[in-house]
Amino acid sequence: MKKVVILFNLGGPDKLSSVEPFLFNLFNDPAIISIPTIFRYPLAKFISKKRTPIAKNIYREIGNKSPILELTQDQAKALEKKLSEKGNYKCFVVMRCWHPRAIDVISEVKKYNPNEIILLPLYPQFSASTSGSSINEWKDLCRKQKYQVKTKTICCYPTEANFIESHVQLIKATLKEINNSNFKLIFSAHGLPENKIKKGDPYQWHVEKTVEEIMLKLSNENIDHVISYQSRVGPLKWIGPSTESEIIKYSKEKKGIVIVPVAFVSEHSETLVELDIEYKKLADDNGCSFYKRVPALGVETNFINGLAKLVLKDVPDGNYVSSVTCPKNFLKCPCLRSGV
């Protein structure tokens, strides 16, 4: 029996000339800007054009492109190798805002002709604007092309034991490099407009559950920590506190900063530029005693093992896999909507 795993990620420009169309795809996503197409399209054109010079400078810092495709392909290969111990699995990568796009990958999947498809977002914490957008795009394509095959969807895994252990091990390895115990552990996640949370998106609650589980495993370390949110864009009020404000606050107290990219599973512009360059400078400028960043999970063994367990979990056709049960007020959670 042949099974296919679709690994979803955001994607990133593969060259500087791809930056503007990548940004347009991002802001033209109705899950990002929830207004009618007739208004969203020109707005996305305007925003992407305006932000392109800034974004190009970001990508110039990391070789004129995003590394996210190659790193996601590495994760797909590692997962496929692990799953091969249990059966005939093939992994495909789909990017939401750049190549390879779902419309192209679905053709490859059809040719492969699997008996089952498992949808696996590389976003441990669910948001309608990330996991939800990718899952919906794939399912919409299947409907339009009348492609019917048994499908399982992994909604989220913010508390999956191996995912948590992966973070714990990388944090411990980083702390071993530090001699100074006067530091703040900052868990930084990508931000989200506050109105999306108010409309029932479980993302912030998922991030908090992830950190709660990590800190339970680190309880013997006596570590002071905080959760913050980065990458704010636009005029809307975003969830907080912001990573910038937390870095400034604790740097002025002459503490060290140890920062954990808690919602990113691979390196890309938000980790390699925003965290490693921009926020480090912010910390240094405000008197931080030292600044260390914990690596993204990548192909760390525990993380890949956790993804494999999620893929192998048996659920009825069409149902969702999740490591948590969301409170009923999180109406955007697909598990709640499906009755799982």
CATH topology grouping of the largest domain? Rossmann fold
Count the E strands.
9
Average of pLDDT: 95
Which percent bin holds the helix content? 40-55%
Query: What best-fitting shape do the alpha-carbon axes yield?
Result: globular
Indicate the structural class: alpha/beta
Strand content: 15-25%
Q: How large, in whole angstroms, is the Cα Rg?
A: 20 Å
Give the biggest beta sheet: 5 strands, parallel
Work out the count of structural domains.
Answer: 2
For the record, the CATH class of the largest domain is Alpha Beta
CATH architecture of the largest domain: 3-Layer(aba) Sandwich
**Uncertain segments:** none
Count of alpha and pi helical runs: 12
Strand order in space, largest sheet = 2-1-3-4-9
Report how far the terminal alpha carbons are from each other.
26 Å
- The helix/strand order is EHHHEHEHEHEHHEHEHEHEH
Written account of the structure:
The protein has 340 residues and is an alpha/beta fold. The chain folds into two domains: 194 residues, Rossmann fold, CATH 3.40.50.1400; 133 residues, 3-Layer(aba) Sandwich (Rossmann fold), CATH 3.40.50. The protein is built from twelve helices and nine strands. It has a five-stranded parallel β-sheet with strand order 2-1-3-4-9, with helices on both faces. It has a four-stranded parallel β-sheet with strand order 6-5-7-8, sandwiched between helices. Helix 5 links the parallel strand 3 and strand 4. Helix 3 crosses helix 11. The chain is globular, with a radius of gyration of 20 Å. The model has no long low-confidence stretch (mean pLDDT 95).
